[in-house]
Design goal:
The chain is built from two helices and 29 strands. With 391 residues, it is mainly beta. A hairpin with a 5-residue loop joins strand 15 and strand 16.
């Protein structure tokens, strides 16, 4: 029993030691103490005639809060330097213990300011603290326009009926706002247009602020007669002396196309009223891809019937043909004459049809009945004349 108590006690001590170690790891000792006036960029370049901002912050490490009066020295004639906090001009700030206050130095530079470097000093002074932060501001002429053009998906695949849509991100890496012209070089008879990313409005140019990006959509539509293969499209953005292009890939898959006709292209047939007549139908795949799961249907005059043998075709290779039989049955009482029957072939996503002129002849038995009826009528007529003629 004594050994068990010692063992448990050892485990408890180990757990407490580990907890103490973990606590020490989570709360490292911080020896930094004081108030600091900081900026990420103590030397910047701006253009004459513009407004620029420099981000600042007052940082308090382990000190009691203290009110600090703020000022800017070294402002040239004609310039305006304003300290902004919370979106409005300020004259003092008070960061809490182990907290910071975010500030901005806003500079309005006149158009005629001479090119060169100006040294500013931002000061924060309190009853026990005096802080100075030197900032060098260099006036420079406009830098050349700079653009980047990045496609989200540079390679797309589809069929001749597809609309290929490329998402493009345009970034203005210049120091000023640019109006960026949009253009595209596509193969002959391809239609290429730029639209908004989430809209249908066509675009020829877009404004982009300095350092910002804008997404647009390039829609490319191939002609319906396009052959299967791979094609290239070049997207272009232009602003001032910046001209940037990116290559986009477009792959058109082959597509089946079915032509439907009678043998030797004949689109007429003969049938007998009340009898099933077989009409040979030739299906030809004139496309450049295999046609699969082809089903057959027809539209006939009222009272007619049409079936197919076979009812469907599994597949037809390019430039190949398949023959099926359309079994057409006019009604028994169909009047002799010509009728139109429309036959269709349907496959994945498409269809073809052809109209056949079917000439109907009445059945022979109906002719015999007709002759018999005429004979009977004549006999009746002759008998009537003979009888009533004697009177």
């Amino acid at each position: 029993m004594r050994y068990r108590v010692v063992a448990v006690f050892s485990v408890v001590l180990s757990v407490l030691a580990l907890c103490g170690f973990a606590g020490a790891q989570e709360s490292p000792k911080n020896d930094v103490k004081g108030l600091f006036l900081l900026t990420d960029f103590p030397a910047v370049s701006v253009r004459p005639g513009t407004t620029s901002t420099v981000s600042l912050r007052l940082q308090n490490y382990n000190m009691s809060p203290e009110r600090l009066a703020l000022s800017v020295a070294g402002v040239p004639t004609g310039w305006t330097a304003t300290l902004v906090g919370g979106g409005q001009p300020i004259a003092a700030a008070m960061p809490g213990t182990n907290a910071s206050v975010t500030l901005e130095l806003r500079l309005d530079v006149p158009k005629d300011a001479p090119v060169g470097t100006t040294n500013f000093t931002v000061s924060a002074k309190g009853s026990a603290t005096s802080l100075d932060l030197p900032i060098a501001v260099t006036l420079a002429k406009d830098l050349p326009a700079k653009l980047t053009l990045t496609p989200q998906l540079p390679e797309l695949r589809g069929n001749p009926k597809s609309s290929f849509e490329y998402q493009l991100s345009i970034k203005n890496d210049s120091g000023k706002k640019l109006t960026v012209a949009l253009g595209a070089d596509a193969p002959q008879n391809f239609d290429a247009t730029f639209t908004e990313q989430y809209g249908s409005q066509e675009l020829s140019a877009v404004p982009i602020d300095a350092g910002q990006s804008k997404d647009v959509k390039l829609k490319v539509r191939p002609p319906s007669t396009v052959a299967a293969g791979k094609y290239k499209v070049t997207a272009r953005v232009v602003a001032e002396d910046a001209n940037v292009t990116t290559e986009l890939g477009l792959e058109v898959n082959g597509q089946p196309k079915i032509d439907l006709a009678g043998r030797e292209g004949v689109l007429s047939a003969k049938a007998t009223a009340g009898k099933e007549t077989a009409i040979a139908i030739v299906l030809t795949n004139t496309g450049d891809a295999v046609a699969e799961d082809i089903t057959l249907s027809g539209t006939t005059p009222s009272g007619w019937k049409v079936t197919f043998d076979p009812k469907s075709v599994d597949k037809i290779a390019p430039n190949d043909t398949k023959e099926v039989q359309a079994m057409i049955t006019p009604p028994e009482k169909a009047i002799a004459g010509d009728y139109v029957t429309t036959l269709r072939a349907n496959w994945r996503g498409d269809s073809a049809q052809a109209s056949f002129r079917v000439g109907v002849a009445t059945s022979t038995i109906w002719g015999i009945y007709g002759v018999g009826l005429i004979g009977i009528a004549l006999l009746v007529l002759v008998g009537a004349v003979a009888r009533f003629g004697r009177r």
